Amino acid sequence: MKLSRCFTYADFRTLARRKLPSPIFHYLEGGADDEWSLGNNVHAFEKYKLLPEMLRGVENIDLRTHVLGATMSLPVYLAPTGMSRLFHHDHELGVARAADEFGVMYGVSTVATASIEDIAAACPGPKLFQTYVLRDRGLTRELVARCKQAGYSALCLTVDTPVAGNRERDLVTGMAMPPKFTPASLASFALSPEWVFHALTGGGFDMVNISHQVAGTQKGGIAQYINEQFDRSLTWKDAEWLANEWGGPFAIKGIITAADAIKARDHGASAVMISNHGGRQLDHVPAPIDMVAPIREAVGGEMELIVEGGIRRGTDVIKALALGANACAFGRPYLYGLAAGGTAGVRRVLDLFRAELERDMALLGCASIDEIKPKHVRQG
Known about the structure:
eight-stranded parallel β-sheet, globular, TIM Barrel, 12 strands, two-stranded antiparallel sheet, alpha/beta, single chain
């Protein structure tokens, strides 16, 4: 299968599976515990039906929207995901170039394998940096200062990881830390020679924005260091401290209830990312799409809502916007594209999303994002 023959999320997934060693593919694919939330994030969209209007004059479709302090050419952006170097040697820089080409925001993870500054150079357009309030507040301040200097548009605080979720697939395949691969999983690396070649020659998998804090002296290395930096004592006051430290568009990621969205607003957040971490943290929590309407009702019209989780095609985005979201974010679709074909794969994913959104909005009877309203969606 070639990239040019990839037309759906499933096509990119199939091609990615062929190219990645099994432990790496399942690390990308998997969720927590029984993976109920992982599947429900996608299936929940099936409950919502679109209600098109006819004869609306849709000869010119405008997909632009303004969110997190930036104008984007599409109402979607690329969610922050850690260690993209695992999936392709183009890593975060390749994703950044594709995002810039399409005029969409790129969310950069604290545990990226490219530097804050190099990503900014590859993506002069809108960028978001995802961080945590770490035990080492000095490191948090350092990351924030670097993002300001590099011209990032927004900061995002992830709050749903006081501890790592129970990702049983990784235990089976050996992707736990430290790795404990089985004979079968090790054999899968031999069946992925292209990946292995670039892994051996492409510069490693360091979390380069924080690796200087370890410098080879930390027992267990950088993975243990970052796990120890997650602070279970955090409260809403810490989120407010970070919002003030940043002083710009500030999102809190991992909100799933209306009550927490109100608290986020009251403690300095301009946006919330309605997310259950792609089903990778606490299992058996609601799908993000199911929480959009109640959260919108609770916080009113001023706060920006971003749906992250289960987005697989243009109609998913339209349903979220109709329910009250300002934009959507996705991770797995573009990571499958990255694994399937590097930068070109990410471009292909974004190109399909753009084409679907343009076509589906015309069929819905909406010429701009602002025209998509609750009247265009029905549950049941």
